[in-house]
Amino acid sequence: MRSAPLVRNVRLDACVADRREARAITGRDLHSYLRRIGLEAAIADGPADVGLVRTVVAAQIASVPFENLDIHRGIPVDIEPAALVDKLVGRRRGGICYEVNGLLTLALRGLGFDAHLVGAEVLTDAGYGPPLGHVVLVVRIDGHPWLVDAGFGGEALVEEATDGDPGAGTAYDVRFESGSAYRTDGVLRPLADFVAMAHWHSTSPGSRFTRGIVCSVTRSDGRYTLSCALGGDYRLTITGENGRETRELDDADVVEVLRREFGVALADPPRPRDVGAAARL
After folding, report:
1. In this predicted model, what pLDDT tens digit does every residue of 252-280 receive, in sequence order?
2. Predicted pLDDT of residue 37
3. Residues 11 and 36 grouped into a single domain
């Protein structure tokens, strides 16, 4: 299940030069990506239309988890294209927004789309978070820009931008029915622009990703989320048409649930690391 987005545009005061790039995954890597998300390679021969984007996004969020397990294993996020393909496709893992949306961008380009990245600030209880704290796609289909997002903790977005261009100076406020929200910055960027923030999210006690573990997929029957807060127990939450069901898991359960529900094979479940402990000494 995906929350339906509500989009409202806000005009930026000044235009800035975009820094678009054209790197893509093609050939064998593209076919491996399609197999990874459960789609036939023949889909690449069809028209590059919004239907294909919706199909790819739905397939990716159902099979490539939004997860931060490596951060709590002491492994910082690496968003080089080769690293994304190796981890998310070859090793069948997931990642945080820079990883899953980075991979999606590379794949959509390989499928013939004009797809690029823009930064976003996530709305928190204290206001908007840091610039480039999130990353979203701008995909042009038949000359019209669409905002696309497969990396917001299980929520997804495929929405036409009808009031200004989100890749040419127009910022968009995006709010999901769950209440989660962010504001895009209107600037097309290469993936390299997000390296510093990916490292910050991997290592800073101020990052929401270092405060606990999350692993989530959204399938046709609902959203499955494995979570564990600092000092807490693992929980599996299933949110579907019949409401929400949550149960606590022991470590043996976690290994099996990761394998069965998320396709992640780990010998032992990571425990949340308190990365702020050293700063408090």
Report:
1. 899 999 999 999 999 998 899 887 654 44
2. 98
3. yes
Q: 88 and 16, same structural domain?
A: yes
Please give the pLDDT value at position 242.
84
Q: Which residue range is the domain that position 48 belongs to? A: 6-197
Long-range contacts of 240-243, Cβ-Cβ distance < 8 Å, separation of 24 or more:
240/1, 241/1
Span 236-245, average pLDDT: 92
Catalytic entry in 29, 70, 78, 134 = 134
Q: Are residues 18 and 130 in the same domain?
A: yes
29, 70, 72, 97: which is the annotated catalytic residue?
Answer: 97
The domain that holds 100 is classified in CATH as 3.30.2140.20
Do residues 86 and 187 share a domain? yes
Tokens of 29: 């890597």
Question: Each residue of 188-199: pLDDT tens digit?
Answer: 999 999 999 999
Both 112 and 237 in one domain: the answer is no
Same domain for 87 and 185, yes or no, is: yes
How far apart CA 66 and CA 216 sit, in angstroms, is: 5
Q: How many helices (H) and strands (E) does the chain have?
A: 7, 13
Q: Are residues 98 and 49 in the same domain?
A: yes
Q: What is the pLDDT of residues 132-168, one digit of tens each?
A: 999 999 999 999 999 999 999 878 999 999 999 999 9
Tokens, residue 53: 């984007």
Residue 13's pLDDT is: 38
Per the annotation, the verdict on 97 as an active-site residue is yes
105 and 31, same domain (yes or no): yes
Is 134 one of the catalytic residues?
yes
Q: Determine contact, residues 134/182, Cβ cutoff 8 Å.
A: yes
